[in-house]
Amino acid sequence: MSQSQVRENPWPGILSADGPRRIAPKELISQKEALGPIVPMLRAAEVSSLEGRHAAVGAFNINFYSQAEGILEGLRRANAPGILQASRGANKFQGGPEKIAKMAAEAVKNSEHSLPVCLHLDHGDDASAIECLGAGFGSVMLDVSKLDCDANIAAVREIVQLAHPRGISVEAELGELSGIEEHISSEKSTYADPTKVAGFFERSGADALAIAYGTSHGPSKGAGVAKLAIRIVDESYRGMRDSNLDMRHFLVSHGSSTVPQELVDEINSFGGQIRGARGIPMDRIQAAIKAGIRKVNIDTDLRLAITATFRRYFAENPGIERGSANLAGIKNALDSKPATIDPRDCLGHIDKELMRSSPKGTDIEEIMGLVKERVASHVAYLCNAFGCAGLAEKTEGHSLEEMAASYSG
Ligand SMILES: [Zn+2]
User: Fold this and answer.
1) Bridge partners, 170 (sequence order)
2) How far away, in angstroms, is 136 Cα from ligand 1 center?
3) In the predicted model, what is the mean pLDDT of residues 280-303?
4) Which pLDDT band, with edges at 50, 70 and 90, does 221 fall under?
5) Which domain holds residue 120?
6) Is the pLDDT score of 409 beyond 90?
7) 76-90, 134-148, 185-199 — which one is most confidently predicted on average?
8) Is residue 16 part of a domain?
9) Which of 4, 88, 213, 332 is 20 to 30 Å apart from 356, CA to CA?
10) End-to-end alpha-carbon separation of the chain, Å?
11) CA of 73 to the centre of ligand 1 (A)
12) Residue 386 has what pLDDT?
């Protein structure tokens, strides 16, 4: 599909599990407000890996302003490029992708962040992926991994044809991950077939592909750890290199949080009840990066860090919530939901405008400052462990317009 065809009919019917569907036209936010593209960052990790310093870029989920600010601060400490990603649940929580995009752009502006950073849609369906194309996102994931391989490829191809003329990249998923996170809920996991990976890239046009190799969503990855199959990553990546698909196409690891035991212990020591939490050991993630993973998704670890910060704050400052409806609401949620690690359970009562902007001068300034610091230190640690610390300078500075031109060339 050429660029002019996209302009004439930008919202064609899109394949989905329910059949073709029309998406209502939407007012587009200027792409000038979008953060940078994802491909140059992943390419920097690829180049570094080929030179023997194996690297993957961290992709961190965001739901509210101080979380985004903390991630940016962590990236700065590690001098790393990085990906902020919002799930459909995050977009819904904040009232739509434009609001999340503005929040991310504001965090970048206020913290004078000058390193390469991208905004990506995590686990989109056809409607949300299309919605994000004009909303300030530089990358979208279409997760239709429940479809058979041919239907998956056809659906991804449709999104690629809309996204690439705008310079926006597309991530797809092959195989199915187990675990529960957001709307993703699957008991069984189906490994990706490595012999299908190169063909998937070639036929769909996707830039990145999440392959199921035994990781799982959520804080209880116990069963998955035993079934980790790094050879699936290894064989997939070899197939890509044999087909000359490296440098522009990249493998992604989902459900890759390490679930630090000290965070779980801290939460439980301050009234939380998290049982059976287990993450992917860091040496396994590093083995997967060595085998060819270039983007590592982290959500659970940041949820744990934020929950631990909230619980410690109220334990160390008894009565601080008196006179503050915002703080009292957070404390009530923690008291009534001892098992939660989802910050949105604690923040749902707070004005969304406040959740999307700097908390300076408000009653949540102190607690959000602690959240920012805790998130920053974990993100910096992960960037060092993933090998992407220092890669900011090696990431070529492309705009989405330049990416659009490179896709059409
Ligand atoms: Zn995922």
Assistant:
1) 140
2) 21
3) 96
4) confident
5) 32-259+278-300+379-396
6) no
7) 76-90
8) no
9) 332
10) 13
11) 23
12) 98
